[in-house]
Design a protein that fits this description.
420 residues, alpha+beta, BirA Bifunctional Protein, domain 2, Rossmann fold, 2 domains, 5-stranded mixed beta sheet, 14 helices, elongated, binds adenosine-5'-triphosphate, binds magnesium ion
């Protein structure tokens, strides 16, 4: 009788060889790109106090309302698996007094994130994001910098069918009057709105622009637009960002209905999507959040950031993933098939010496006959095989088909020399 098998949780992916290598490639490209622009890597914990996301992401958001993996630990604290990266990085910025560093403070991160969502292609419950956050400057050039970095990342990864959309949400002051106007508009059309949009008229009226529901979308096509209500200072900031993007030949569309899912944005918001992705078209996005650090208990600090989804970058990329090359330089086999007497100990010592000398090595571990071990070494692509027979050691050059007795030292020297 066999035990029942246990499957991975819904909405999670096992990253086998080539998929893991593809992820690693994105991470390496991002690391190089961010380093070249002066961004320092930061790794925050996978779980945080639940309160961080309630306050940092916003109560009336999809994430906080229904997507968080929240649990109590052994002492009854409420913790949450991080659903996004900005709030944790802001927490770290405040906690480590980074406002005392010379501004701007520029950070990037990478890792798994968790959202309880309807699992489908491009939408998972554990997914990876790479992101960047920059603190301490309200300069529109920083907005353009973050947008340019997101676009560069997509370009380097050969992401196809890319569209960049941008908008401005103004500051919370200039938004206040508009929110009232929008609330009144939404109330006037209440019966035509999806239930969750109706429920958020008070708490988060702007999210109505994000609704997928067709009737709601038809209403929102006639709604007053925040872009037409920006204060002079906000409009000037937005114009400066557009000009910089134009100078850099970064193509963009202005989307007055782009609001983004998180509560904390101010002024510039942006989203990069790909036509390759179907319904889950968002590759990455972000925006300015000039009030968030204050809301989390830090000093007033303008800031901006973005995050991109690794799985979606890869789904939209034309680059084919390849597994890492694992061919050993040395395969250690036994003349008599199964190791006899002290052969196993000597093989293990040789393996350790080879690794210490920087030679990739593997031992025959499945009791193959010498003939089969040689065939296996060949399949792995090993150029050399060490053959242990009693006290004897021989080195076989697979390409030349030659074999000779030698000492361990001669063997290691021959392989190191051969590789040069
Ligand atoms: P969407 O509109 O697709 O739900 P979002 O606005 O919730 O995206 P953000 O919170 O801005 O996404 O996250 C940034 C990026 O992270 C997205 O553009 C996407 O590439 C990726 N992402 C977000 N949620 C998921 C998920 N559940 N599975 C895979 N990738 C995701
Ligand atoms: Mg979402």
């Amino acid at each position: 009788m066999s035990a029942t098998t246990i499957r991975a949780p819904r909405g999670t992916l096992d990253l086998l060889g080539p998929a893991a290598a593809a992820h690693e490639r994105v991470r390496a490209r991002a690391a190089a790109l961010f380093a070249s622009a002066g961004y320092e890597q930061v790794e925050t914990p996978i779980f945080e106090a639940t309160e961080l996301f309630v306050r940092g992401v916003g109560e009336a958001t999809d994430i906080v309302e229904k997507e968080m993996y929240t649990f109590e630990d052994g002492s009854g604290r409420s913790l949450t698996l991080r659903p996004e990266g900005t709030a944790p990085v802001c927490r770290a910025y405040i906690e480590h007094g980074m406002h005392k560093r010379p501004a701007p403070v520029k950070l990037w991160y990478w890792g798994p994130f968790f959202r309880y969502e309807r699992a489908q292609s491009g939408r998972y419950r554990q997914f990876f994001q790479v992101g960047a956050e920059a603190f301490g400057s309200a300069d529109p050039a920083l907005d353009a910098e973050l947008i340019a970095l997101l676009v560069s990342l997509a370009q380097e990864l050969d992401v196809r069918g890319v569209t960049l959309r941008i908008a401005s949400l103004g500051t919370s002051e200039s938004r206040a009057a508009y929110r009232e106007e929008l609330r009144a508009f939404l109330r006037a059309h209440e019966t035509e709105l999806a239930p969750e949009v109706r429920a958020r008229i008070d708490a988060n009226p702007l999210r109505a622009f994000d609704a997928k529901d067709a009737r709601t979308a038809a209403v929102m096509a006639r709604a007053p637009l925040l872009l037409d209500r920006l204060s002079a200072a906000d409009a000037e900031h937005f114009a400066a960002v557009r000009e910089l993007l134009g100078e850099a030949h970064i193509a963009f569309e202005i989307d007055p209905r782009l609001v983004r899912g998180l509560d904390y944005y101010t002024r510039t918001v942006f989203e990069l999507s790909s036509s390759e992705l179907g319904a889950q078209s968002g590759v990455g996005g972000g925006g300015r959040y000039d009030r968030l650090i204050e809301q989390l208990g830090g000093p007033p600090t303008p800031a901006i950031g973005f995050a991109a989804g690794i799985e979606r970058l890869l789904l939209a990329s034309s680059a084919q993933p390849a597994a890492a090359a694992l061919a050993p330089a040395l395969y250690i086999a036994f003349g008599a098939g199964e190791p006899q007497g002290a052969e196993r100990t000597r093989a293990f010592a040789l393996w350790q010496e080879a690794l210490a000398a920087g030679i990739a090595a593997q031992i025959e571990l499945c009791g193959r006959s010498l003939k089969r071990a040689l065939a296996h070494a060949d399949r792995l692509g090993a150029p050399y095989v060490a053959i242990l027979t009693g006290q004897q050691l021989a080195l076989r050059d697979m390409r030349a088909g030659e074999q000779r007795q030698c000492s361990v030292r001669e063997l290691l020297a021959a392989i190191s020399g051969g590789e040069r």
